[in-house]
Amino acid sequence: MSARCPMTCHFNCIIPPHLLEKLLRSDDSEVRQAALDTLMTTSRLRGERGVRASFVGSAAAPGGGRRTVFDCKHSTSLPSAVFARSEDGPESVDVSANRAFDGLGATRDFYKAVFNRDSIDGRGMRLTAFVHYDKRYNNAFWDGHQMVFGDGDGKMFSDFTGSVDVIGHELAHGVTENTAGLEYHNQSGALNESMSDVFGSLVKQWSLKQSADEADWLIGPEIFTPGIDADALRSMKAPGHAYDNDLFGKDPQPDNMENYIKLPDNEMGDFGGVHFNSGIPNKAFYLTAVRVGGFAWEAPGLIWYESLKASHAETQFQEFANTTYRKAAELFGDDSAEQLAVLAAWQDVGIQISGILAGVARARSLAADRSGGTGGENGLATVSQQIGALAAQVTGLAKDVTALKSK
């Protein structure tokens, strides 16, 4: 099935295929089998429309983002799942059901409070989740209408409901589907993955009331079991440094366009490396957030959200970077600290905003850094003041020279 088909675009997993493929070479037969089963199940689901249609009526009907959680009881049949928790009901005795319920709520409330968005589709979409999917299933996925969580194999991965940024990441795919509809391949697909990392991280930061400096900027730090030497699935702060061990190897994410990874646009090639190259726009968002300072979901998050809404299915890195620069000006003003932070961030990952000479961009970026990048006078005003002060000094020196000559 083509990477461009709606079904493929709507089926998004948190664990990239290259990590599961690494596990196929594990010395532990149980780990190998769990990885193989997960890959086969995931591949099968990508080719089936039934999983998306299972609860399409209840999931799609508007309902103010009301939540319902079902328990698959280790089956792969969603229609046979049993009820576990609803919006008006009591807590479940199942910890996984409660965590999924809380993660759905945190994500829904984030979009409403920060962007005034009514649930994932902007029209009150009901939020449905399924826990305990399959046996030792090493993944969690969004299929276009609902969230599905595996329990992990217990050796490499733990219960996927344990990480709120994973839940936020997967639900953000639904936001992207209902805004830009970024096609899931090559650069548009990497942007799709990056938007989910950005908003997944922001959901966690908003829930914890963390500033950009306080946040860990890690995606899925809780899903590895304690015995695995890995910080997380990905690091937005330092793409390429989330893990480095004998089992998974070194995190392959690039953080600059000069290291962009070209892979086949098919399932085995991660649809052109969407989970790899998302590290580049991830780093750009992180750099923007720390330059602006304060809470990342405010100015930086708003710029990225409005840029997503202004994008289209085939938007590439360059076009998205240009859009963030333009949106920063629309929201905060030309040469504002926010716009200069965006300019510098994209430049730092090897993407030059169109129409701005590299030297000018570098000068503006340096000026923004000197002025602190937040709150005070913008970078252009600072440069103007510096030039004015130098001009006054030159004028004064010229007068002194003239006076000396006359003597």
UniProtKB/TrEMBL annotation:
EC number of the protein: 3.4.24.-
CDD domains, per the entry: M4_TLP (cd09597)
Biological process terms in GO annotation: proteolysis
TM stretches of this protein: none
Active site: E170, H275 (proton donor)
Domain Peptidase M4: residue ranges: 99-177
Position of the signal peptide: none
GO CC entries: extracellular region
Domain Peptidase M4 C-terminal: 180-351
Organism superkingdom: Bacteria
Enzyme class: hydrolase
An annotated Gene Ontology molecular function: metal ion binding
Record keywords: Hydrolase, Metal-binding, Metalloprotease, Protease, Secreted, Zinc
Pfam families, sorted: Peptidase_M4, Peptidase_M4_C
Family: Belongs to the peptidase M4 family.
PANTHER family cross-referenced by the UniProt entry: NEUTRAL METALLOPROTEINASE, PTHR43579
Function: Extracellular zinc metalloprotease.
The name this protein goes by in its record: Neutral metalloproteinase
